[in-house]
Design goal:
By secondary structure, the protein is an all-alpha fold. The protein is built from 4 helices and no strands.
């Protein structure tokens, strides 16, 4: 059992994705600061934030709901990545690499959700 959410590999991977999204979006046009840049950073950060919130919840149902929210933030981030790739904001080699991390996180979140549902 983890003593803190920071010890959880899934939270660590989600945080790494957030940091990477920040780095990649740092070079985007300033006109996107309150649009695309803000959206992708918010959704990426929402993944690790919801995992942390799930960790802090006592009741299984609450935990499951926050893992679902993390999964929603993850798929939102994937959509933003796809948009960024299509409009040329994110280079193809970054997009291909970045597509792998969300898919692994998605699978891991599903495993946690299924495991917790079995405990209900």
């Amino acid at each position: 059992m983890y003593k803190t959410f920071k010890e959880m590999p899934i939270w660590q991977h989600a945080m790494e994705l957030s940091v990477e999204m920040f780095s990649i979006t740092d070079t985007l046009p300033r006109k996107e600061d309150y649009g695309y840049t803000s959206q992708i950073r918010r959704s990426a950060l929402g993944i690790s934030a919801n995992i942390a919130e799930a960790f802090g919840r006592k009741h299984t149902k609450d935990k499951i709901n926050f893992y679902y929210m993390a999964r929603g933030s993850l798929t939102e981030t994937q959509s933003h990545l796809e948009y960024g790739k299509r409009v040329g904001y994110i280079e193809a080699h970054h997009a291909v690499r970045l597509d792998l991390t969300p898919q692994c996180l998605y699978n891991d979140l599903n495993k946690i959700i299924v495991s917790l549902k079995g405990k209900k």
